[in-house]
Design goal:
The complex is a heterodimer of chains A (about 300) and B (about 260).
Chain A lengths: L17 H8 L5 H21 L11 H8 L1 H34 L5 H14 L4 H11 L4 H9 L14 H25 L3 H9 L4 H29 L3 H6 L7 H10 L7 H29 L7
Helix pairs in contact in A: 2-13, 4-8, 4-10, 5-8, 8-10, 9-10, 10-13, 12-13
Chain B lengths: L4 H29 L13 H5 L6 H33 L4 H9 L6 H18 L4 H11 L1 H14 L2 H10 L4 H12 L1 H17 L2 H5 L5 H11 L1 H21 L5 H5 L6
The chains are: A mainly alpha (about 300), B mainly alpha (about 260).
Chain lengths: ~300, ~260
Amino acid sequence: MTQLEYREPGPAISRTGSFYWRGKLAYLGVLPFLAFSGLFLLYPTWNVISGAFEDNYGVRSTAMLREIFYSPIARTAFGNSLELSFKTALVGAVFGALFAWTLATGKPGGNFYKISVALSSALAQFGGVMLVFAFLATFGFNGLILTLATKYLPNSFLADAGWLYSMNGLAVLYTFFQIPLMVLVFLPTLENLKPQWREASDALGGKAYEYWLRVGIPILIPSFTGAALLLFVNSFSAYATANILINLGDYLTPLQIAIALTSETGGSNPAEAKTLSFYMVVVVVISMSAYALLRKKVSKWEQKR
Amino acid sequence: MKQSFGLRLWRWSIISVVALYLLVPLYAMYDFSTKPYGFGDQGRTFRAWQMIPTQQDLFPAITRSLITAAIVMAIILFLVVPTAIWVHLKLPVLRRPFELLCLLPLAIPAIVIVVGIAPLYRWISINLYESPITLAGVYSMLILPYTYRSLSAALDAVDIHTLAEAATTLGSGIARIIFKIVMPTIKTGIINGSFIAIALVLGEYTISNILNFKTFQVVIAQIGRSDGNVAVAVSLASLLFVILLLLIIPTKKRQGSVLDVDTI
């Protein structure tokens, strides 16, 4: 019980007694957790990072890093992944923020608020299998919108399910879980906007648009950007949705990693998978660090707890 | 509060656009799952819904996913929570490193963890026994940031040092302090963390698919290849179940605060 022990503030030599060792023994308490996370978290991370600097025979080299960096297939996939994540993060952030604003200005604790938040929590986790089925049931073969479109708008792109499998189709699917996530992340910020600011602006004769332009938006920009970065990472790391929709495509980095890892035709290439993963981790770490920096800025005015 | 006409127009147009986008696919799922087999739109049928209980792979998969979720929760209760309390009580020096370790999974996409764990997983399945425990281990690490967030918020809210000192004076040991005294006081945090764990385990696809482990999601995807209507019905049923669960649990800005990393 470290808290209760009376510690002699004497010289270091006197601290070799049992008190000293009891203090050190406390470190043993974290050993089980450390071993466990070492096995399931630190080991995989280390495995990927060190593996990126090795070839398939375990020899240290940066050949694979360079090969992937200059490989046109990997470059295209990486570019596609970045573009898709950027687009869906932007669209999701804008619409999610607007929707969060309608929630924040509505009746707090009302039924609409409650249902929207519950629905958002469910739909933000909705990526993957169920999301693909939902959109196949909507725009896919024999789906709701497709059936209507073939009847009334036979010449529009909606009458053919092909667009769903393109990059734009994927973007529409990804936005479906980005908007609810944005609502969840951004709602607390909007609720922390102080009504006094609006009152001050009104009292000084500011119009509604002037309040938003000069006070609201400048103050929300850091947390908006932070939330958008979170959405970016969310869609950048997404694998399930794309994998189910396009079974064997390789035009996104996560899909390429899975193919390099599990190729059943004997072409399995763990070094390639690790190198691609390493590049992904680099992007995610950069985005998350930027996010953490932005959050620091935000917490200056946003008093939590 | 009286709102101006322009403001109300804005609100309702935003609400209707977003609601349309989010709700039409959900309605389409219902529509699709009640469509008669084949073409044409003559009437409704609940064939797909009636076929759910006849799916052979489905119930073993749900059981497997629930067992995995139970193991994940056991890991949280008996490993993560006690360690968090231990660090709070006895090793304040380690609080920052512990927090960083817990937030590390935020920087590592699931697909990357699979790449890293695949050799170990293969070794365990070949030399030991293929069990959900390995999978549960990976999952419990994936949700570590969320668990940590709800735990540390709960631990900060109560003065556990005083509680621990009082308990020690009255003669209880450390195990009793952790499990009988501190854990009941942070019950809400633990329950919140556990719900997130269940949601994650039931919805996880990436890792189990690549490691060839037939969990709930993997089996739904498999059903989708043979009978789309049934797969859509199962998806809609599980989604409704989750929404119902979330409406029952008292939500108090849970998700929002969970995702903050402002203390790094």
